Amino acid sequence: MAQLLGMTIAINAGDIDDVLDFYTRVFGRGPDTAPMDDFLEWQICPGTWLQLSTGHDRPGANNARMRFEVRDIDEAVGRMAQAQVPIGEIVRVPEVVAFANFSDNWGNALGFYQLLSARQLTTAEERRLQEAEHAARQAARDSADQQTEAAEIIDERAAKLPPIPADGSVPGQTGPTRAG
After folding, report:
1. Is the pLDDT assigned to residue 145 strictly greater than 70?
2. Closest Cα partner for 73 from 102, 41, 49, 50?
3. Superfamily, domain 6-125
4. Which string of DSSP letters, residue by residue, matches 5-55?
5. Higher confidence at residue 162 or residue 42?
6. 61, pLDDT greater than 60
7. Which residues contact 63 (CB under 8 A, 6 or more apart)?
């Protein structure tokens, strides 16, 4: 078997801002790289990456895929074909990555990938900017939550008030209050 160089665990997730917020809290830092607009990566330990593909309508359980890094994707796919293991076509993202997916006999989603250029890691300055943007988004969410809470309290209080009668009378008084 060809020497494995690393591994990725890819999962689908929802809105990119929500994903960024959640995983920034989980890892205590922003992503180490974002090779595409809808894709975030955190290095979990040397050679192991968590990849989050964002913007999916139905993210959730059972959509994870584990890929193994190889030096030559064409060789890895050729070896799988020789071994009569069904494997998908090679997908190439220019100057980023080439990968091919397959499943084991039990339905676990696997694949091989080859980096086409070095990962562009987030600099310390970019990380500081990410953290500031994250804090600003969180403050905006907190403010919106407080406004929603206040509106719900007002709605609750209004729901407890007696309805205004159709004839214009004031509750607790007799007869219409309009000049007529």
Report:
1. yes
2. 102
3. 2,3-Dihydroxybiphenyl 1,2-Dioxygenase, domain 1 (3.10.180.10)
4. -EEEEEEE-S-HHHHHHHHHHHHTS--SEEEETTEEEEEEETTEEEEEE--
5. 42
6. no
7. 11, 12, 109
Q: Where are the alpha helices (DSSP H) in the chain?
A: 16-27, 73-82, 124-160
* Domain definitions of the chain by residue range: 6-125
Helix (H, G, I), strand (E, B) or coil at 103: strand
Q: Using a cut of 0.70, tell me whether the model's pTM lies above it.
A: no
Q: Is residue 67 classed as helix, strand or coil in its secondary structure?
A: strand
Do the Cβ atoms of 159 and 53 come closer than 8 Å? no
Q: What is the pLDDT of residues 40-50, one digit of tens each?
A: 999 988 889 98
Q: What region, left, alpha or beta, does residue 86 occupy, with left being phi > 0 and alpha being psi -120 to 50 degrees?
A: beta
- C-alpha triplet 50, 78, 53: angle, nearest 5°: 20
